[in-house]
Automatic annotation (TrEMBL):
It comes from the Bacteria. InterPro entries: IS701-like_DDE_dom, RNaseH-like_sf. Residues 5-201 form the Transposase IS701-like DDE domain. Gene3D superfamilies: Transposase Inhibitor Protein From Tn5, Chain A, domain 1 (3.90.350.10). This is Transposase. Pfam families: DDE_5. Coiled coil: none annotated.
Length: 351
């Protein structure tokens, strides 16, 4: 990995407020580094999770603990005006309730001691093209599912000897295959469950096939029971969270935990850490220029995503040092840049 270009480009993504281009970076550097050199750096090879791990490993080793959490979630960055290819395609956005054009990014975020560091990532690729018989439209599909990608990322973290005890995930990843895989790796999971998930409250009921919907359990906030998920052979904790919305209505969140040594309140507290990946995605989009690269080739688009993830890691390191969050750090940079711009404007008027 060319560390000089990596540091320059990732710093540029943090400091920059406009389009992230090789020409723009060269101009900022006073042509000390040509835009052609930056373009070659982004185009020479594909940067992957292995490169990310090499870049963050030293800091991870400083903060990791046996009780750490590995948090998984994906996010969609819309790219409405970019040409379609293997990574820029249509993905279903659950928040909007329809498909949007852009890139779908799966991240593994390690959280320990108040510090959150990205340790693995995968861009969802859809290289398989086919014609939909019903609509006669060309569509694309992935060769692997996001659940398969998540299991591969967990395997990589285990091989890298990352210290963690819990894996946190939303209901999208709450599949039996994932639960079995995590338990086989001697780790624990805490995951959200959909309301229609079937559970049994005793081993006898499980053996007799007497399952009920998770939504039918009468539980208050942070209360739970022991039980069994249909299709999963081990006993688990089933926990309910109740939230009051701004309009006075209530929302329910059902959780499942494989660790029988913790109580229901601890399960709820541990799962709250999953919000850290939402903060990571927000910083990735707002503070690291994720959507601001006009590149059109898959290689450079992939590498720009990698550089953005690395830029957020650098912001997290600055947060540890200066005790302020990513957005406050960016605000400091903006104020300093504005001050210099005003000073230069005054000089131009006085000339």
């Amino acid at each position: 990995m060319k560390s000089k270009e990596l540091e320059l480009y990732s710093d540029f993504l943090i400091a920059n407020s406009g389009q992230a281009t090789a020409t723009g970076l060269a101009e900022v550097l006073g042509q000390a580094v040509s835009h052609d050199k930056i373009t070659r750096f982004l185009s020479e090879r594909e940067y992957t999770s292995k490169d990310l791990w090499r870049a963050v490993k030293a800091k991870v080793r400083e903060i990791e603990r046996d009780g750490g959490c590995l948090i998984f979630d994906d996010t969609i960055q819309e790219k409405s005006w970019t040409d379609e290819n293997d990574i820029i395609w249509w993905h279903f956005d659950h928040r909007k309730g329809h498909s949007v054009k852009g890139l779908n990014l799966l991240n593994a975020l390690y959280h320990s001691g108040g510090v959150s560091i990205p340790v693995a990532f995968e861009i969802v690729k859809k290289p398989v093209q086919f014609c939909d018989v019903a609509t006669r439209q060309v569509k694309r599909a992935s060769k692997v599912t996001k659940n398969e990608q998540m299991r591969a990322m967990i395997q990589s973290c285990v091989i890298n000897q990352l210290k963690f005890k819990y894996i946190l995930m939303d209901s999208w990843f709450s599949a039996k295959e994932n639960f079995d895989f995590i338990v086989q790796k001697k780790k624990h999971f805490i995951a959200a469950l959909k309301e229609n998930r079937l559970v049994a409250l005793s081993e006898e009921e499980r053996k007799q096939g007497r399952f009920v919907r998770m939504s039918s359990l009468e539980l208050s906030d942070q209360q739970g029971v022991r039980g069994w998920l249909k299709g999963f052979e081990k006993e688990v904790l089933l926990v309910r969270r109740v939230f009051t919305n701004k309009d006075g209505s209530t929302s329910l969140l059902n959780l499942v935990c494989s660790d029988l040594t913790v109580n229901f309140e601890q399960v709820a507290t541990l799962y709250n850490k999953r919000w850290k990946v939402e903060e990571f995605h927000k910083s990735l989009k707002s503070n690291a220029s994720l959507a601001k690269s006009p590149t059109r080739r898959v290689m450079t688009q992939n590498n720009h995503v990698f550089m953005s993830i690395y830029a957020v890691f650098k912001l997290e390191c600055l947060k540890i040092r200066h005790k302020v969050n990513h957005f406050a750090l960016r605000t400091k940079l903006y104020i300093k840049a504005t001050q210099q711009a005003l000073s230069e404007l005054q000089n131009l008027r006085a000339a």
